[in-house]
Each structure stands twice: as structure tokens, then as C-alpha cells.
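Priority: medium. Attachment 1 of 2:
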């Protein structure tokens, strides 16, 4: 069995595992007078988990779609949704599309991308986040804190220049305030927010699904834009092939499946680890 197939099986097991928990009424409740709730995940852990999946998604999109696609003649533009522009979303706009779809869902998850040298001035970090971003630039370590003004638990993660298209676009953009970006630089930070300090299994799965649904929504929006291109020669063939093979684009299902195969093993490990800790704690309390 190859590595990707194994990860696909782990994602299936993750789905079945959560379904079993829900059908059985969730994890066992503690019988001690010191009962705890079903909130088994610290919010920082879940925001870290979804941020890591976002890194995988954006790297795959940036390198596998934008970088390889440009070599085949595909175009990407900040005005990609304008009727007169036949192009796809740049990586930052791909993330914005995910964020927009999450806001439409019932999951209270916030996501946005900021920087100290943003192309769009509204994305410049201010106040406490600007101070914490200075630390992220220095050591690339995540920052977790409670945002008093918004009453939200917040986690910030370094956003690195992982591919040449990111560097070239930012250096050459007409509105850029920095023209010497290079590969590996901390270009900004993804900021994630949630209103509670802990999550249940159902809420954790909801966060993961909200992110994945957002990814699928923006990718489908890109494919719909391609379908509306007026010039047939600018339309790549949509199927199971990637731009590295020619003038192709994968379907949304193929793209999302690739992300899941790369990310789901890690997600399952974290969920199972939390369940193990919960079960051990329950046994300890019951035995007293």
C-alpha cells in the first residue's frame, strides 16, 4: 500500500470514528462529582491543526496550480472575478475566498491574512497583533492569545514565501511597499479566531469541515470562472491531471482529495490523542 493510499484510509477512519462517537452520544461522561464537559480540545490545538492543513492547501495551490499553471499559460490576477479578466485567483485571494465561505457557515471560525508590508493597507497588523507579529518574524513560532477587544481566542502563524510566484507577485505589484521579498521570508501571518477556549469533538470536526468546505467553494468558483472564459483556447482541460502534465487543471474533488490525503493522518493522530487523554483522566477519577 503506498503512502498516499494509507493516508486516505486514515481519513476514512477519522470520519467513521467521529460518526461512532456521535451515534453513541459522544465520549463517556465522568461519574465523579468533578465532572468535566465534553470539551476535550484546547482551542489553540484545533486552530493549530486547521492552520497546518491550510499550509498544505496553500502550498499545493501555490506550487501545483499557480506555479505550474503559469508555465503552461494559465493566468492569475487580483481582479480574477471581473468579467473582462480571464484568470484565476492569486494565492492570497484563494485564502480570502476560503475565509469568506467560512463566514457564511454556522461555525464561528475567523480567518484572515495580515502583514507589516501588505499590498492592501487594510491588511496591515495593528496594536497587539503587530507586536506579536514581530516575534513571529524573529522565530516563526505561533502566538496564541485572547483578544480582549473582540472577546476571541486568537492564534497567529507565520505565512512564508514558499514559491517563486508569491515572491515575484509581491515584488512587482504596483501597490507594493516592499520590493525585495525572497523565498523563505515571513511575508505575513494567518490569524485564526474562535469564541471558546475549548471544543468538543463535534465542534472540532465542524471547524475542520468549515475550512475544507471553504477550500472547495473557492476552487469551484475558479472552475466556474474558467467555464465562462470567452476564448476556448484559454480554457484548460478539467479532469484528473495537474498543470505539471500540460494544459490541465484537476477537478475540485481531485484537488481536495489530494489535500486530505496529505493532512488527514496528522488530524486523526491529534483527535485520537485527545480521546486517549480524556479516557485516562476519566478512569483515574472513577477509580478514586
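Attachment 2 of 2:
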Amino acid at each position: 500500500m503506498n503512502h498516499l493510499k494509507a493516508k486516505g484510509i486514515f481519513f476514512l477512519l477519522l470520519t467513521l470514528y467521529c460518526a461512532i462517537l456521535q451515534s453513541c452520544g459522544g465520549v463517556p461522561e465522568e461519574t465523579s462529582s468533578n465532572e468535566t464537559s465534553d470539551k476535550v480540545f484546547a482551542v489553540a490545538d484545533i486552530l493549530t491543526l486547521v492552520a497546518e492543513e491550510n499550509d498544505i492547501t496553500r502550498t499545493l495551490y501555490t506550487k501545483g496550480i499557480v506555479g505550474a499553471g503559469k508555465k503552461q499559460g494559465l493566468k492569475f490576477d487580483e481582479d480574477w472575478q471581473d468579467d473582462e479578466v480571464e484568470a484565476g485567483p492569486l494565492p492570497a485571494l484563494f485564502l480570502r475566498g476560503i475565509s469568506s465561505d467560512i463566514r457564511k457557515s454556522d461555525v464561528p471560525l475567523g480567518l484572515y491574512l495580515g502583514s507589516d508590508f501588505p499590498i492592501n493597507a487594510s491588511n496591515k497588523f495593528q496594536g497587539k497583533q503587530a507586536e506579536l507579529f514581530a516575534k513571529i518574524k524573529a522565530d516563526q513560532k505561533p502566538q496564541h492569545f485572547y483578544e480582549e477587544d473582540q472577546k476571541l481566542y486568537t492564534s497567529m502563524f507565520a505565512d512564508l514565501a514558499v514559491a517563486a510566484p508569491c515572491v515575484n507577485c509581491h515584488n512587482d505589484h504596483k501597490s507594493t511597499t516592499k520590493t525585495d521579498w525572497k523565498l523563505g521570508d515571513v511575508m505575513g501571518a494567518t490569524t485564526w479566531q474562535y469564541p471558546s477556549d475549548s471544543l468538543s469533538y463535534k465542534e472540532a470536526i465542524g471547524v475542520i469541515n468549515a475550512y475544507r468546505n471553504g477550500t472547495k467553494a473557492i476552487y469551484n468558483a475558479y472552475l466556474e470562472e474558467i467555464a465562462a472564459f470567452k476564448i476556448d483556447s484559454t480554457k484548460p482541460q478539467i479532469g484528473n491531471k495537474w498543470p505539471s502534465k500540460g494544459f490541465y487543471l484537476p477537478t475540485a474533488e481531485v484537488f481536495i482529495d489530494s489535500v486530505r490525503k496529505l493532512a488527514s493522518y496528522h488530524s486523526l493522530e491529534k483527535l485520537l490523542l485527545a480521546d486517549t487523554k480524556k479516557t485516562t483522566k476519566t478512569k483515574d477519577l472513577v477509580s478514586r
